[in-house]
Batch of 2 targets.
Target 1
Amino acid sequence: MAKAHPKPINLALQGGGSHGAFAWGVLDRLLAKDEVTINAVTATSAGAMNAAVLAYGLHLGGHEAAREKLEEFWKKVSEVRADFGWTPANLLEAIPGFRRASQTLNYFFLQTLQHSLSPYQVNPFDYNPLKDVLTDVVDFEELKKCEATKLFITATNVRSGTARVFRTEEICAEHIMASAALPNLYQAVEIDGEAYWDGGYMGNPSLWPLFYQTEVQDLLIVHLNPIVRKDIPKLSGEIANRMNEISFNSSLLKELRAIAFVQKLLRDDWLKDDFKDRLSNIHVHSIRAETTFRDMSLASKYDTAWSFLTDLKQRGIEEADAWIDTHGEAIGKRSTVDLHGDFLDGETILKAQ
């Protein structure tokens, strides 16, 4: 039997700090076999870092080079300990429950600083070790030449409050850092005279560039922020975590609502013939975050211990493997999510839990 040709897909990668290692696992599984080709990636924050490393690896040597580059990137992240943690790794492994305590302690320390001082006071020289990691792993001048996949990286313009999407041919390390610049942690990143914060506020990630600048109909969203939580948060940390999730999902849900509206226009034949060819019926797919991150706090997004990152990677591999087994045959044919039932209709969503 002849081997089936890989199916083209577009990817949307959310931001979420070190939880981006889950998306690393998803990408590793997609790259490990030849079921799909990655036509374009839209991404924000940690997703933008994954996307840049992915594209650079694909440019250098295809799927295997991309897998190697992603491994190199996350290994360097763990070595830097960008969460400012001071807990010895052996204690994290040896004492049950110590990891969560360490995450909470580190997060409490950061929160105390954030509530007292701005990033301009705490870090006046704007040192960010993640930028050094990125430039060690990715040659951005070479990345600009990438034709293996298209990149769309979102950042938030501080003055206008609007999304700015940067494309492959212009992307450098500053664009990635702008997309990941949480304003309570990092100074705004200045690019061409404008200041930018984390892209998650206005697009986590932005989906619309895929509709205007690619012809591939299949979109796979890799979530890092749970849409649904069954329990009502009552502790201050739980409340902050849920507020963060809702905030960073809001822009994505708005774009999914727009896709659902276009699907209805096409399905119910509401468009004049002159306009039908101008709209594309997007096939939406989704690898959700609810199961993986159900018991993880906001503090865990700052944990860069290698054992934690590789655990998230393995969970991502398993989720991607299950998704391909269940839905892989639908690529190129139909959506595998019900936008209203899975994302937009609150009563339906809660009944399904």
Target 2
Amino acid sequence: MIDKNQIVVVVGAGLMGTGIAHAFASSGFQTRLVDSNGQALDKALQNIHAIVDGGVKLGKLTPEAAAAAKQRLSVHAGLGAGAAHANLLVETVSENLAVKQAVLAQAVPVLADGALVATNTSALSVTEIAASVPQPERVIGMHFFNPVHKMKLVELVLGIATDADAVARSRAWCEAIGKTSILVNESPGLTTSRMSALLGNEAMWMLQEGTASAEDIDTALRMGFNHPMGPLELGDMTGWDTRLSVLRYLHATMGERFRPCPLIIKMVAAGRHGRKTGHGVYRYDAAGQRVPGSGLKASAL
């Protein structure tokens, strides 16, 4: 059991950091969200409040519980105050090794003694990230999934130095926020990113070849395999620029089966990254809703 008096600091107020901070604050933990970008912090706070308020409307939270969750969350522009005496740090800044190492090098000295240090990386080496931290045995990958408030899985990723105590504590933290954890040895793409990249890439090859329409490819995976979302829909949500970066990394480290489909390269070059740009495989309106019948057709390629 995790003591509810323990403090969590989440570094990085992007999409994942927002979701992770919400998960801990709504589960009863004092949670600090840190980002040097004030606008990102404001947006994250608004989004977290919207998720909490949505829970009240759906009857999943009482108004009192929602108010308490909001009160447990604070935002900070600097690591000095944000990370001070925290018992768990979850780093979710950009997928850049030097940036992640710099964040941990600055934050770790002000954490509580023996604090657990987690990185939300989906592709970089936990071992290399941990190299910037005294006692690298307490560093572990804690890979959450988007949207965090709906997705129950967390991949716990072992670096070369990660010890059994860090694993046990990480599992306990996951249980405390209602997540199921799996244990993964450090490897390119872990389990989910590797499988998702392969599936999404193959779906794009099928679309490029004219095997089926985008809508029908996605319907096949939803209805035939009971996936909640088709691979092209998922790529639009993740961002094809992100998917392309992962595929290039996997292609370089694991070989030809991960060679990016040319259609993905073409779409990224055109700025059609997905939902965040309003256009990917599908088009999206100003509210982020998919425009019916807007799926990319093979005849348009």
